[in-house]
């Protein structure tokens, strides 16, 4: 709300976050024999070839925090795209998620991450489903305020994001936790 008590709508955004996608320890890697006899007359021959793999490119992510009036909690909307601007599929996004999130996604494929129209941009974005958010935020607020006072909005958002951000691999800067 602003100073006149009027409610403002909108969203918080964190945009163009770069995740360098790579094939971590691929089983297809060949081992190289580096124990060769070299004499001064032999030429060094490089048998490696540089091949750029589309999977190894940078992925960009935009994150928006949007308040859900129906769930009465903040929700994380996000989209991923490649350097040429093409949207990333959920399968590609799964490879960029922390391993703990991928296992949760496999357990609850249709309720953990869903795709729907962004409420302000009217374009398809992925979102983390807000089920359970109210319960764990209530637990956080009870443990942080024993005197029954309501948690300040800033602390609420930091607490919320410290949990939700981990799901997509974002960490809260230490300065925000103090």
TrEMBL record:
It comes from Brassica rapa subsp. trilocularis. Signal peptide: none annotated. It comes from the Eukaryota. Belongs to the ATG10 family. InterPro entries: Atg3/Atg10. Keywords: Autophagy, Transferase, Ubl conjugation pathway. This is Ubiquitin-like-conjugating enzyme ATG10.
């Amino acid at each position: 709300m602003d100073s006149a008590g009027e409610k403002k709508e909108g969203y918080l955004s964190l945009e163009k976050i770069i995740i360098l996608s790579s094939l971590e320890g691929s089983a297809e890697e060949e081992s190289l024999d580096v124990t060769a006899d070299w004499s001064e007359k032999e030429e060094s021959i490089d048998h490696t070839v540089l091949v750029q793999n589309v999977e190894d490119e940078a992925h960009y992510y935009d994150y928006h925090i949007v308040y859900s009036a129906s769930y009465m909690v903040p929700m994380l909307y996000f989209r991923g795209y490649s350097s040429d601007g093409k949207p990333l599929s959920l399968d590609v996004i799964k490879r960029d998620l922390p391993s703990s999130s991928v296992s949760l996604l496999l357990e609850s494929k249709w309720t953990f991450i869903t795709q729907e129209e962004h409420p302000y941009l009217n374009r398809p974005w992925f979102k983390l489903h807000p089920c359970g958010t109210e319960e764990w935020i209530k637990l956080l607020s009870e443990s942080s305020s024993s005197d029954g006072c309501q948690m300040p909005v800033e602390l609420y958002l930091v607490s919320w994001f410290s949990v939700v951000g981990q799901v997509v691999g974002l960490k809260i800067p230490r300065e925000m936790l103090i």
